[in-house]
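lol ok so funny story. i was supposed to be doing the assay writeup but got distracted and ended up predicting the structure for this chain instead. priorities right. anyway since i did it might as well share w the group, maybe its usefull for someone
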Amino acid sequence: MVERLYDLLVVGGGINGAGIARDAAGRGLSVLLCEQDDLAAHTSSASTKLIHGGLRYLEYYQFNLVRKALQEREVLLRAAPHIIRPLRFIMPHNTPLRPAWLIRAGLFLYDHLAKRALLPRSASIDLTSSPFGRPLRPHLRKGFAYSDAWVDDARLVVLNAIDAAERGATILSRTRFISARRHGEYWEATLQPIEGGVPLTVRGRALVNAAGPWAMDVVRDGLRRVPKRELRMVKGSHIVVRKLFAHDHAYILQNRDKRIVFAIPYERDFTLIGTTDVEFEGNPADARISTDETSYLCAAVNDYFSREIFPGDVVWTYSGVRPLLEDDTADLSAVTRDYALEYEESPRSAPLLSVLGGKITVYRRLAEEALALLASRLGGVRQAWTAKAPLPGGDIDNGNVDNFIADLQRQYRGLPPELLHRYARAYGTRAHRVLGGASGLASLGKHLGDGIFEAEIDYLVQHEWARTTADILWRRSKLGLRVAPETSQQLNAALPAFLSKHKK
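and the output, tada:
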């Protein structure tokens, strides 16, 4: 059976696909997005979780990319203050690696390449007297501070998908793109639900290939074409350990190989450390950290922190494959993180747009540029709108999340403050939809353990495409870091009833 004709078919439910679907739906276009796994199941949930300009890219003269990313940093801080928040970074000065004047010059550029209204400027720090020097080795006496932002990357993807769906888009997670063929002015695509069932045949006036590390597979296998260019697959891995320092600043550590490693406060009790750059071959879904990568990240931290860490201290790891634009650069860390939009059209055939490369910070700008390319062919497309539009839950007065949390705790006095804090940070103003006017814990349904109640599971299944325990514990949240095995088992046992309740 052939379904309706959509304006736009989007392949890929990572940040770029979700961002394009949101932008297009908000411009009045009919959109279908398909994703072979869960939303943000791969690269888009495996980032270092930063909204940043990319200070180190200045060293490779990528000024346009840095400027664009710094501009977007301000936009996104306003759009989703509940899942994106300012983060101050400390860079200890390791004299043999980069001279102080070079770092100061880079930070000056970083402060001034784009308008900066929400974040403080960079500064020099005396680590011998600063609390930020206490966790560090004694020989590190000087440092620098600058600002960027932290993001819950997987939730950022989901929020874009929610907004797209509420503006009319059809979001099909766990639905694999099989193939597409042009039929004059529309594409006819075959999609296969991975849980079984009859394949779907859908039509679209334009096709967007936003499959990330699978983008060239879509071209080769799904469209039966020879790619015009190749992507360079680079695995980035991270480790999580018990927290190495008590304050809320992050560290950016210069390595002997001229790469940098971040040490970031994470989920209250942990420190996130990453990332690596390793050439990757094979299925991106199979990316896992290697022993060498774990040792590399531990060594990078041990060069700077008085308290050393070892592979046995690692409580969790994750890896993702970044599809970078192919070039001749031997140094993987120097390969550009910019993106390219390959657009193909002719007067009487449906257009094809392939999204190649990119970084999470500039996804919204990428989506705008994608729609600008498609608009002339699709006709009747409204103007760009996402620059000043909050993401779902982000419509918090003046972006002041602390005030919002305090108000939520006053309104729901019968609920634990720590639970309300988590809901506020995860769902923003939509926490009210999860809470449903609850007067006490009994109003949230059965407690499955470790602060997980039926009301939240119901919301995630109904509104956020959660289908498995991993969806809930590792992408919609990071509760997997602290829940007991019994809680995970109870959640797994409870899910089928919610899936049946909200089956479409």
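The CA atoms of residues 62 and 336 lie 8 Å apart. The chain has three domains: 2-43+154-230+337-388, 67-152+232-322, 397-501.
back to the writeup now i swear
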